[in-house]
Amino acid sequence: MTGPKPLSNILAITPYKGGQKLDHGWKLSSNENPLGCSDKAVEALTKAAQHLELYPDGSAFALRQAIGAKYDIDPDRIVCGAGSDEIFQLLGRAYLQPGDEVLQSAHGFLVYSLVAQQAGAKLISAPEKDLRTDVDAMLERVTDKTKIVFLANPNNPTGSYISYSEVKRLHAGLREDILLVLDGAYAEYVQQDDYNDGMEMAHDYPNVLMTRTFSKIHGLAGLRLGWAYGPESIIDAVHRVRGPFNVTSVAQAACLAALNDDAFVAKSVAHNNGELDRLKPALEEMGFKVFPSVANFLLIDFGSEKRAEEADVFLRSKGIVIRDMKAYGLAHCMRLSIGTTEANDDVLAAFNDFAKAS
C-alpha cells in the first residue's frame, strides 16, 4: 500500500542540518554565543515557566512594545517569529508561488533556498567577489519573475558585509514590487562605520523588510525568537500566514529581559572582537587562509575538499567540532565559531598540531 504523496518540490528539498556536536569537547559549529545569555533572561524565563498552562500572547505585544522603544520604531510594524528562519518561511507563504524566483548572493544562508523550494520557486544565486556580495551581479540577475531578494548582511557563512551605500544601491536597482529582505542576524557584532542594518530603509520604503534575531548576540538560540520590521502591508501579510501562537510565552519573557541588558551585549561584542583579532592572525601564521569576518565566526580555506575533510577528522579527535561548508558550495572551507577563551586556546593548539602533521 502507498500513502499520500508529498508535492514533488517538497521531496526535492534537502533538510537543513544544524551544526553537529560531540559528547565532549567544544562545539564551535553553530555560531552560538560562548558567554551564554543574560542572567536577567534566565530569571525572567524561570518566572514565566511557573505558568505554562497559559497560552502565550499571540501578538507578542509587550515584546514588540519594548523593541519599538529600544530602537525608536513603531511596534505595530514589528512581527515576531520562532527565529528569523520562520519569518523567512512566512514570507515565502505570503509572496511566492511556483514559477517565481528568489535571488541571493552565491553563498547566502541555506534557509533562503529552502524558502524557495517550499514554494516551488526557483533560487537564483549571483556570483560574489572575494566572497562578498556583488551588487552589480545581483542586479544583472533580476528578471520579471523575481519576487524576493535576500541579503544577509553580514553574511553567513562568509563573515563579509557590504556598506550601507551598496545596500541602498541594490535597493535602487529593484522594481517596487520586489521585496528586499535585509537579514541582520549578526548586526550587533559589526563595528565598521560604513555599516547599517537597514532599519531606516525598512521604515522609508514599501518593499524593504529588516530581520533580527535573539539567537546570536543575546545567546537565546534555544528559545527560537526573531523579529522583523517593515511596512505595514508586509507585516500584515506575515501576520495572516503565521500561527496564532507562534512564539512561546517563556521565549517572549526571556527576550524581553535580554533586550535591555546592554552590559551583556557589550561584553559579548568585546569578547568576540578580541578573540577574532587573536585567532585570525594566529591561524594565518600557521599557514591557513582565513577570510575577514565582522561576525562571530571565521571562514577558513584549507585549499581542497580533501584537506578540509582531514582537518575535520583531526579536530574531532581533539574534541573540537566546526562546520563543514559543502552545502554552501565551499567544500574546501570550514567555518569556526568564536568560542570561550579556553576553547579558542584549544583550537589554536589543535590547528597548530594539524598544520605540523599535514
Structure commentary:
With 358 residues, the chain is an alpha/beta fold. It has 2 domains: 18-36 and 263-357, Aspartate Aminotransferase, domain 1 (Alpha-Beta Complex); 39-259, Aspartate Aminotransferase, domain 2 (3-Layer(aba) Sandwich), CATH 3.40.640.10. 40% of the residues lie in helices and 15% in strands. The chain has 13 helices and 13 strands. It has helices at residues 8-11, 39-48, 61-71, 83-95, 110-119, 135-140, 164-172, 199-204, 232-241, 249-259, 262-285, 305-317, 341-357; strands at 26-27, 78-81, 101-105, 122-126, 146-152, 179-183, 208-213, 226-229, 289-290, 297-301, 320-321, 323-324, 333-337. The strands form 3 sheets. Strands 2-8-7-6-5-3-4 form a 7-stranded mixed beta sheet, sandwiched between helices. Strands 9-10-13-12 form a 4-stranded antiparallel beta sheet, with helices on one face. Helix 2 (39-48) packs antiparallel against helix 10 (249-259) and helix 4 packs parallel to helix 5 (110-119). The chain starts with 7 loop residues before the first helix and ends with a helix. 44% of the residues are buried. Homodimer. Its cofactor is pyridoxal 5'-phosphate.
Mass-distribution shape: globular
Low-confidence stretches: none
In whole angstroms, the N-to-C terminal distance is 53 Å
Number of helical runs? 13
Query: Which percent bin holds the helix content?
Result: 40-55%
Question: CATH homologous superfamily of the largest domain, by name?
Answer: Type I PLP-dependent aspartate aminotransferase-like (Major domain)
Total E-strand runs: 13
What is the second-level CATH architecture of the largest domain? 3-Layer(aba) Sandwich
**Beta-strand percentage range:** 15-25%
Subunit organisation of the chains: single chain
Order of helices and strands: HEHHEHEHEHEHEHEEHHHEEHEEEH
